[in-house]
Write a sequence for this structure.
């Protein structure tokens, strides 16, 4: 069991192998994620090799994307950043629900990332067709490890119900799928989703959860401290190839973690 706490040396008991990075505000947390990504990209740039990152949708990443657009447009070596998606809603890129649309408006139009480095999931295409197309694209564009495409970093969020990517508690089979990409269905809206599978996420060099807000605190407590019904949460079953996940949390999201002085 190992963990690093970036906040007043608080010890969190009984956590799975995680790195916990806890900051006071969502903005501070987003900045810590941006700095971590910058460090990782610069390391790759020294070796003149690409940095393959998959990003999630929803609201939380918007804060990070805006920050990267406003303060990292010149600092980040964007020419080696290759951008993929963790999941996409089955809607057109211009639709308000589009994860690509959100990233495009809040980040891509504001930073010099080459168009050839942007690999969006096509939410407007027949989902079954897009699953196969994106699977083939990942196998072509990424290194393959143990039969699965390997990202340098997978950036995840967490739903109040413990879902991550578009792997929901009502369909955990995507966690063990033999395919790199699958179809998820939102349990409330019924919205269809294209999503990376659990085994693709678990092949990544680094898995980072970026989570803010008190509505997630109880689920985070259960996942990190392996308590209550944590096994029912898809987010409990994803981590990097080394078995570790990094959790970047603000105070509100971390508020229910048990301190062991
Ligand atoms: C999506 C996401 C999803 C998201 C969580 C948290 O497309 O919705 O990829 O997994 O990360 O639902 O969403 P919020 O950041 O909006 O809380």
């Amino acid at each position: 069991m190992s963990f690093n706490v970036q906040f007043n040396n608080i010890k969190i008991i009984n956590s799975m192998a995680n790195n916990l990075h806890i900051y006071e505000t969502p903005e501070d947390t987003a900045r810590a994620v941006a700095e971590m990504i910058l460090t990782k990209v610069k390391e790759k740039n020294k070796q003149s090799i690409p940095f393959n990152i998959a990003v999630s949708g929803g609201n939380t990443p918007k804060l990070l994307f805006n920050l990267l657009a406003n303060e990292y447009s010149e600092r980040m070596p964007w020419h080696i950043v290759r951008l993929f998606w963790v999941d996409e809603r089955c809607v057109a890129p211009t639709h308000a629900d589009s994860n690509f649309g959100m990233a495009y408006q809040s980040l891509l139009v504001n930073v010099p990332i080459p168009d050839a480095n942007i690999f969006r999931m096509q939410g407007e295409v027949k989902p079954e067709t897009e699953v196969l197309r994106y699977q083939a694209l990942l196998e072509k564009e990424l290194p393959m490890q143990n039969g699965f495409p390997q990202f340098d970093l997978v950036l995840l969020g967490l739903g109040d119900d413990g879902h991550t990517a578009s792997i929901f508690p009502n369909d955990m089979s995507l966690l063990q799928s033999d395919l790199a990409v699958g179809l998820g269905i939102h349990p409330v809206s019924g919205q269809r989703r294209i999503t990376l599978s659990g085994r693709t996420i678990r092949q990544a060099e680094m898995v980072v959860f970026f989570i803010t807000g008190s509505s997630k605190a109880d689920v985070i407590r259960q996942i990190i401290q392996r308590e209550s019904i944590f096994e029912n949460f898809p987010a409990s079953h994803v981590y990097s190839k080394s078995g570790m996940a990094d959790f970047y949390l603000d105070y509100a999201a971390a508020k229910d973690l048990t301190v062991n002085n």
